[in-house]
Structure to design on (253 residues):
């Protein structure tokens, strides 16, 4: 195994240099997804460092989600997660297709129901008003990645009923087919444990952590038109955002 020379004058600690070297090899495909990493002994020989230094580098990469350990078997490379920018109002297929992913939707159900108190309040409708309820599974490169539960007012639901929900985002259908300009969305993100419905839809184990997105989308005039819950596999997807520090206002004298 070829030895990798670390830079002695580099201000970074040795474990950080090793971490960066291994990260680069993971990202460029030298260590492929689901492949086994070299053993701690081999890494010590490769970088000419102690085992504690190697363990610290591997531990950091594991915390970043780039590696995972299987008890008694070793350390393996994680499958890269797809991601979506939460600061941009986009449909799932719209965002993923632009990055080269293949998106397919499985329509589980489409029905007109009476809005429960929560859905009615979110869509600013009377309790019991008719709404379209849509359940879809989103497949990323033919693997289930999210379960999507959507409610829209009945008028828009009738238009969606005739649309191609198997291949298109609801956002794009509303904008392009229904002529509804989208404005903004209120988004809440938390984590839950998978119940029976999510287990069946996403092929995960019961009790697995799942990312839950609650999103209420408004049109350009501020009217709520689309309320949904999105449940994502925690091992396959992540939301990303950029935050800027607000500069404190200077007090006027």
């Amino acid at each position: 195994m070829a030895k990798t020379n670390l830079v002695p004058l580099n201000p970074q600690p040795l474990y950080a240099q090793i971490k960066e070297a291994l990260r680069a090899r993971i990202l460029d495909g030298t260590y492929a997804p689901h492949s086994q990493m070299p053993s701690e002994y081999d890494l010590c020989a490769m970088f000419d460092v102690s085992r504690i230094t190697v363990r610290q580098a591997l531990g950091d990469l594991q915390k970043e989600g780039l590696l995972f350990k299987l008890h008694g078997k070793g350390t393996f490379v994680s499958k890269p997660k797809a991601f979506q920018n939460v600061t941009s109002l986009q449909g799932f297929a719209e965002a993923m297709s632009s990055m080269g992913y293949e998106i397919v939707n499985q329509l589980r159900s489409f029905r007109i129901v009476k809005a429960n108190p929560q859905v009615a309040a979110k869509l600013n409708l009377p309790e019991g008003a008719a709404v379209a309820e849509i359940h879809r599974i989103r497949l990323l490169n033919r693997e289930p990645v999210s379960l999507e539960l959507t409610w829209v007012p009945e008028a828009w639901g009738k238009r969606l009923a005739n649309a191609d929900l198997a291949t298109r985002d609801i956002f794009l259908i509303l904008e392009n087919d229904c002529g509804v300009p989208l404005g903004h969305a209120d988004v809440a993100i938390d984590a839950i444990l998978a119940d029976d419905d999510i287990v069946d839809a996403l092929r995960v184990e019961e009790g697995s952590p799942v990312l839950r997105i609650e999103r209420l989308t408004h049109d350009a005039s501020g009217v709520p038109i689309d309320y949904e819950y999105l449940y994502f596999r925690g091992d396959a997807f992540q939301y990303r955002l950029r935050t800027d520090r607000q500069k404190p206002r200077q007090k006027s004298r």
Helices lie at 14-27, 40-47, 51-63, 92-97, 117-122, 154-161, 170-177, 196-202. The mean pLDDT is 83.
